[in-house]
Amino acid sequence: MTRNAETQVAIVGAGPVGLALAIELGLRGIACILVEQHEGHPRVPRMSGVSSRNMEFCRRWGIAEKVRGAAWSSTHPSDFVYVESMTGRELARLEIPSYRDREGRIDYSPEGSATCPQIYFDPLLAEKARSVDGVTLEYGTRLETFEQDETGVRAHLVDTRSGEPWTVSARYLVGCDGAGGTVRRELGIPLDGQGTIASSVNVFFRSPQFMELHDKGWARFFRCFDEDGCWGEAIGIDGKELWRLSVFHDPAPDLTGRLYLRKLAGRDFDYQIIDVSPWERRDFVARSFRRGRVLIAGDTAHEASPTGGAGMHIGVCEAVNLAWKLAAVLDGWGGSGLLDSYETESKPIAERIVELSTRTFNALAALPGPKAFRRAFEADPGILLALTLPEQYRAQFCYEGSPICVSDRTPPPKGADELLPSARPGTRAPHCWIAEGRSMLDLFGGGFVLVRFGAGPPDIAPVVAAAAAAGVPLEAVDIDCPEAAEIYGKRLVLVRPDGHVAWRSDTPPDDPAALIDRVRGAGQG
Fold it and tell me: Which superfamily, per CATH, for 3-70+111-191+285-343?
């Protein structure tokens, strides 16, 4: 007899994006079943770092300290070091302080980025997901196909261990199953972008001796040169003995990995190769992020060069963006345009990040040989900044032109101003400490929050009443913090459940009901 299950949301793919979506839905009281064809124990760390924005979500989920302490020592710096080889000459260094040394020095986030490769990060997310009521994880389960109608989606699954089929009926299905997964292929959504930009190779290896070979000290990235330019980078995984070497381009790869490791070290050394994986470095964005009751997120919707470390970053942001909207619709207060806004907001961000990631990789791969690079660095040390994505940029992106945000007609920032905190509608609400150990961001993540800076008027009761009449969860908070008031720029700021600003003004809205309808997807964009 075929097993049947029912849930509100079915999620396909238990990587970081699928797990983040399951956590967010569960915390919002939405039942979900997450299926993953593998067993949930990643052997190879495809990603190695968690962005500051993603760490802000981990803070809200109560796992930030676990993530920060999972692998990387609090005293190891996270430098980018440019070398001829590990035993050769150091050419340049971009210094990034250790957790301990940067504590209290980051002004754009209460958390900052963290080194937590996927072999550690996924299990932490899965542990959190299992602890949330309403979330069911089904590993060893493969999606075969699905169909949808105006009321829901029916997913046909197979238990990969027993071969037995079963089905899940859900109101919505979300594909987080990656670039080669089933969901986008079944939907027939085409891809835009440059496609494959390089044929890369990852060598995952263990060597307690590796850090004894050289005098460079600890760093996150060692970027290596030969006479033709920068050919690869070694990335610290556990801060002890695990490393991943990424070879930027080799269409005829050494599948043993041995030639790469000798070139990296500049000499023979002791190591154990755990995995050698050729892979395509790609640039694409799906033409649509939704077909009816089926949506896509993460690598299913876009794939970027990991050079800038932004792939998982935008995928998890998409999961948080989508979760509150699905919850609002399923709970009955989300308007008919709310789910449409997911693609409207997320697709331009994905296009921008994919383009920037490709540009960053191309700049790195185009670096000259070591002598010319050294001369260029000595002439302009700032060239190293062009080879990384600023963390503030990733933390502070804005959903420009969102149909569920109300513009206050302030122009988008340009140049260096892009890295300054801003509460323009559409932007992730900026961080500011408002008490010991308490950030403005700690106010957000449940329902809507209407922040009033300073005591007394303006009167916010009509907005609160309008939200209640529409069934929209809204909390009003008074904040007496001049620094925060200056950063947020207006007396009244309405922040969405995903932590992005929906509206701000010095005066109450003329039509509170129209404002609430707009931000819940039931009004005019």
Answer: FAD/NAD(P)-binding domain (3.50.50.60)
